[in-house]
Amino acid sequence: AQAAIFKGEQYFAKDSFALALNGNGADYEGFESIIDQYGSTKSGNLAKAYAGISYFKMGETEKALDKLKSFSSKDNMISPAITGLIGDCYVNLGKTKEGISYFEKAANSASNEVISPAYLMKAGIAYESLQQYKDAIKTYQTIKDKYYMSTEASDIDKYITRAEALAK
Predict the structure, then answer these.
(1) Which of 27, 63, 134, 139 has the most C-beta neighbours closer than 10 Å?
(2) Residue 7: pLDDT band by 50, 70, 90 thresholds?
């Protein structure tokens, strides 16, 4: 499984998502085939993440969601990133509330200065899109208070001010 996934990772790195997913017809079968053959292995599980990301990048949100939800990991960087991408899928499908819950879950499970504020920011913007300004303010304030060294915190006051103005 590990050898089978290597070529797919190369295609993936080159943004050749269709080839990564479906193979090249010669010496590489594709992430879908790897999932079918080795889905219960570590490499098969990783192929699910790659396939989900590939489908997302290709605009096939439903397929992306299916693959991403089948992936499982306890890694502190990969798992929150996949959880956040599930949130992106839901937002793209017009299910913003579900998306927000995944953004918040990703931020909480990462609990670090890089990933957490990025997903909290997405949650705040999504709250605003639903006109839930008080929730947006609370989310932005968390970035300001807890992740004050993050890139997102550098201009968070303008988001807080805007949400406060819209809340009135």
Answers:
(1) 139
(2) very high
